[in-house]
Amino acid sequence: MEKIRTEIYSLAFGLKGIGRIDGKVCFVKGALPGEQVVFRVVRDKGRYLEGELLEVLEPSKHRITPECPYYGRCGGCQGQHMDYSEELRYKEEQVDELLKRLAGTDSPALLKIEPSSKEYGYRSTVTLHRRGGRTGFFGADGKTLVPVEKCLLAEDALNKEIPGLDPRGQRSDVTIKADAAGRTWSSERMGERFFTDTFRGFEMFFSPRSFSQANRYIAVRILEELEEWMGETDRDTAFFDPYCGSGFFTFLLDRDLGLRVGMDENRAAIDCAKTTLKKHGLKGVKFYRADAEDKFFRIFERCSLGKNILLLDPPRRGVRKDLLEKIRNSEELDRVYYLACDPARLARDVRILTEDGVWRLGRVKPFDMFPRTKHIEVLAELTRG
User: Engineering a disulfide at 290: which of 146, 263, 271, 314 sits with its beta carbon 3.0 to 4.6 angstroms away?
Assistant: First the structure.
């Protein structure tokens, strides 16, 4: 096995250390800027190398000892070996770099990253996998199962559930969620298809079988930021949330609106949203079970008002190009907000939306929804140029 020594000069997206060997870039997982490291090449991609860290000869002042015993084997975390302030700094820099490089924006109005209130114990939802009579999380290769008894990112209520999961259960994956009161709900327990949780004093229905925000504190901070950016609205304004899940933003947005419209292709999520709507007897709120990328504009034509605001909060794959082009060409949309869990996809989609100059990128704010991991949540504002 050939051992190679190099100096790490930066971090790439995904928190991998960047070095250079004979003019070729190498990415070394677990290495930090300023460090002299020894690694071995695990993949030669032609234009770059991927390396496995073997030894740190000169450690960074920001290097710390990971707290999790599974770190390095489990694929869930990538940032436990650096102090949290440095993790935040690099995440913010990476959003800036991706927007400039992939979106073609010379000077995005990038705001300071919002830190999580907790570095650990913040996750209110986890999904575990069963393979070969064992229960755990996938490793860094996305295939190997790492059995776990506790996840340091998860709330205490969830960790009390993990040891009791039957590794021979019928489902290959099981999702557990915790509500604000510390009660837990499982995707495989009978009678737990729906549960209630409270945000800002408003009770909503959720399901362990559909998406919900994992970090309660950051989810509310994003909501607050969105409200600030929107400013004052009136009853001649419609708000569209085509990837609404159970209706978190549709319901909780504290703005005067004539109509709120949510849609999602997940049946359980829309059932939750409609049950919440019925419980509260709200007027001026509509939900549709629909694939946004195929049916958004059909619904938009029926529901649009004098002013129309669109929130795009798509899954990690981003928004399909043909829908982005229709949004770009729509004269009836006044503002677009984009909440992304992958800043590279955000940058790609922003490039499409701003291609002809009708729309321009305004404020951008990263949120650390998932501390100690490579993931970054980003809220972006698009306004007519």
Answer: 263
